[in-house]
Design a protein that fits this description.
Blueprint (H helix, E strand, L loop, with lengths): L23 H4 L2 H5 L13 H30 L3 H25 L4 H5 L14 H10 L14 H11 L4 H11 L6 H4 L14 H9 L5 H32 L11 H7 L6 H9 L3
Helix pairs in contact: 3-4, 3-6, 3-8, 4-11, 6-7, 10-13, 11-12
Length: 284
């Protein structure tokens, strides 16, 4: 079908009347979604909309990440490794999108941000309950984070629940145990409210899996998927750090942290340390 006068004709079956039908806007709740950007600067700064949308879209993606990781953990509990890996694969794609988003925020210059930063008060990404929940689900548990959310009972309760639930790594190790691998009992019975710490006895288990990949393909693939998750998360943390340094230098954060110095320390945190340590042992 050719286009005349650079104008495309609407096909006759395209629905036009939505007086009694669900529309795109109603399905996605667009009036609510698109009215949620409320700049607080006075007079309103042109670049504050960028800052708000950057963080709101991040929260939407984090909501989906949590949905997928919780499902992956549940599938591991039921020994459905295939479905768990499918969910993790989706999370990896979301992580790439989240990391690329920093390049948009990085177009905000230090001068531009300084002109409305003071209006943010003490609000800070540090207070993102969903981000903390993702860290907890992956294994970086920290009970001391909970008081930050006491003023929001729903967020506090959700985070407490994640804190007290096994991480996806805990579920993976329990899955391996049920498959006959020699997972140390200390890990199977550990206090799941605490951050996972490096367990040297676990490294030989992963060494066996890696060096006998053909016989343990499911476990082998899962190990590599978890490594991808951590790599992607660390890249996100690094881009966050660099964007903050680029925008505010070494100023303290609006939420009271030391800013870039505090973010730098996050790069020392790990989710699955044995999966990285085993690389030194393979082939020896």
């Amino acid at each position: 079908m050719s286009v005349e006068k650079n104008t495309r004709k609407l096909e006759k079956d395209i629905v036009r009347d939505f007086s009694s039908r669900m529309s795109y806007a109603s399905y996605l709740q667009l009036p609510t979604l698109l009215s949620a950007q409320q700049p607080v600067s006075d007079p309103e700064h042109h670049d504050e909309l960028l800052f708000i949308i950057q963080h709101q879209t991040t929260e939407l993606w984090l909501k989906l990440v949590l949905h997928e990781l919780r499902s992956a953990a549940a599938w591991l509990r039921s020994d459905d490794l295939g479905s768990a890996l499918k969910a993790i694969a989706r999370v990896k794609h979301i992580q790439k999108t989240l990391t690329e988003q920093w390049s948009v925020l990085a177009t905000l210059t230090p001068t531009e941000y300084s002109q409305f930063r003071g209006f943010l008060g003490n609000s800070s990404g540090f207070q993102s309950s969903q981000y903390r929940a993702v860290e907890f689900v992956l294994g970086n548990k920290n009970r001391k984070m909970l008081p930050v959310f006491e003023s929001d009972p729903e967020a506090h309760e959700q985070l407490r629940h994640v804190l007290e639930s096994p991480s996806i790594y805990d579920e993976f190790l329990a899955y391996l145990h049920r498959q006959g691998f020699g997972i140390p009992v200390s890990l199977l019975e550990r206090d799941v409210t605490k951050a996972h710490e490096f367990c040297p006895e676990l490294v030989p288990v992963f060494k066996h899996i890696y060096e006998n990949a053909a016989d343990n393909w499911g476990a082998y693939e899962a190990c590599e998927e978890l490594v991808d998750l951590e790599d992607n998360f660390q890249l996100w943390r690094f881009r966050h750090l660099r964007t903050v340094q680029r925008t505010i230098g070494m100023k303290a954060g609006t939420g009271g942290s030391s800013g870039a110095a505090f973010l730098q320390k996050a790069l020392e945190l790990t989710f699955f340390p044995e999966l990285f340590a085993v690389r030194t042992e393979i082939g020896q």
